[in-house]
Amino acid sequence: MFIRYKLALLFSLVVAGLLTLFSAVIYQISASYREEEFLGRLENKARTTARYLMDVKEIDNDLLKIIDQNSLTSLFEEQVLVFDEHNRLLYSSLDDQPPQYDPALLAEVREEKRVEQSSAKIDLIALALPSSLKASGSEYVVMASAYDKFGKSKLIYLRNTLMICWVVGVGLTVVVSGLLAGLFLRPIATINTQIQQITAQNLKERLPEGNGRDEMAQLAINFNQMLNRLNLSFEQQKSFVSHASHELRTPLAAMKTDIQSGLEEALSSEEYRLILRDLFQDTQRLIGLTNGLLQLARPLDPVLRRKLISIPELLLDIYAELSSLRKAQKLVFEPILDERRELLVPGDEALLKTLFTNLIDNACKYSPTHEAFIRIGSDASHCLIDIEDKGIGIPPEDQERVFGPFFRANNALIYSGYGIGLAVSQRIVEWHGGSISLRSTLGQGSTFTVRLPLS
Ligand code: ADP
């Protein structure tokens, strides 16, 4: 079922429930009021008749009947009966019909002193009244009953009015709530239609953001922001693929030319050796590139393989490995004090090794002395690692771009490289919830600072 119909139905049910409750309360209060008021009138009647009969000696039964039947307050189908202490009927206001009463009621009245009864037709009140003439303890019973014709017809009129109001109210609510729900949900329907038209081909399309304040506008704004992010990552992916194919094509084209000349010309063994050496270099480059691409493309699982890594120990390991491999490189550690060894970072050891090896390799590669200066520090929540060199530096306009895949600054082109290392490093740092920043002065050197959250 559509939300629109659900909302309308729910709202109508609530209103119908409330109307039923209010109507029932109003009807009940009116019915009680009618009964109370009519029984009050009956009681007056009963007491007056009893008083005339008992206390006024000049009035006999016949005179009392005439008074009863002709009084202004006489009621519809009225009947007043008075019984003495032996339950003998002393007086009946009806002269042509036999009195109608339930003899069991007499005993109940003598017990309770006052009994009220209301049936669909007749309301009745029966009172046990002490006689002022007789000895104390003897009691008369007076019963007054009548049909509240006007009160009951008013009640029926009220009931019919309430029922008509209920039907009209609920009907109106169904229509109005249906219209209102449609009106409020129309922006969602519009957004839906527009979303259906957005495909990978027209990711630049945006939803109208309305007044920019209500929930619908917020939804459109958030959706547009998501499209911005998707579009950016699509663009990045496209440029990544075109860069990657370009980078792969260069060594492959060189290899093809080498192989062609080897096949087509009769060459000396020395010349074949040269061709093989070129092929070897191009293959090396291809391997380096594909390794870098694999690292960039590999999805980094957000939870798996994290353990606590001591950053000072990790850097000392890298130092030991690099020193034994490449004698030309020189790593200078600012003193790592023993107490700093507990700088523990939750992370993946292999990835962190790749990160720092990339940065240290660059520092040594891009400085004539092949020196990298490493500093480890911390603040309240992060471990801070500086990798500094006194090398060629990075031009200010390129400093933002060096973290993009395949970007190489002009002053670095004479050095070997693929422009992937920093992109991979940044990805690794972000996976660890940290950040990487760069300070560099052209011709003087660069410092890369890695911030990793401590455990
Ligand atoms: P590669 O070093 O293979 O070119 P990287 O992604 O590691 O790729 O670096 C990208 C670019 O950033 C380099 O080509 C170079 O222009 C610049 N760069 C990185 N590190 C340094 C550094 N320590 N000194 C100067 N330039 C650097």
From TrEMBL:
<feature type="domain" description="Histidine kinase">
    <location>
        <begin position="243"/>
        <end position="455"/>
    </location>
</feature>
<dbReference type="InterPro" id="IPR003660">
    <property type="entry name" value="HAMP_dom"/>
</dbReference>
<dbReference type="Pfam" id="PF00672">
    <property type="entry name" value="HAMP"/>
</dbReference>
<feature type="domain" description="HAMP">
    <location>
        <begin position="182"/>
        <end position="235"/>
    </location>
</feature>
<dbReference type="InterPro" id="IPR004358">
    <property type="entry name" value="Sig_transdc_His_kin-like_C"/>
</dbReference>
<dbReference type="Pfam" id="PF02518">
    <property type="entry name" value="HATPase_c"/>
</dbReference>
<keyword id="KW-0597">Phosphoprotein</keyword>
<keyword id="KW-0902">Two-component regulatory system</keyword>
<dbReference type="GO" id="GO:0000155">
    <property type="term" value="F:phosphorelay sensor kinase activity"/>
</dbReference>
<dbReference type="InterPro" id="IPR005467">
    <property type="entry name" value="His_kinase_dom"/>
</dbReference>
<keyword id="KW-0418">Kinase</keyword>
<dbReference type="InterPro" id="IPR036890">
    <property type="entry name" value="HATPase_C_sf"/>
</dbReference>
<dbReference type="InterPro" id="IPR003661">
    <property type="entry name" value="HisK_dim/P_dom"/>
</dbReference>
<keyword id="KW-0472">Membrane</keyword>
<keyword id="KW-0812">Transmembrane</keyword>
<dbReference type="GO" id="GO:0005886">
    <property type="term" value="C:plasma membrane"/>
</dbReference>
<dbReference type="InterPro" id="IPR050428">
    <property type="entry name" value="TCS_sensor_his_kinase"/>
</dbReference>
<keyword id="KW-0808">Transferase</keyword>
<dbReference type="InterPro" id="IPR003594">
    <property type="entry name" value="HATPase_dom"/>
</dbReference>
<dbReference type="Pfam" id="PF00512">
    <property type="entry name" value="HisKA"/>
</dbReference>
<dbReference type="InterPro" id="IPR036097">
    <property type="entry name" value="HisK_dim/P_sf"/>
</dbReference>
<protein>
    <recommendedName>
        <fullName>histidine kinase</fullName>
        <ecNumber>2.7.13.3</ecNumber>
    </recommendedName>
</protein>
<feature type="transmembrane region" description="Helical">
    <location>
        <begin position="161"/>
        <end position="185"/>
    </location>
</feature>
<keyword id="KW-1133">Transmembrane helix</keyword>
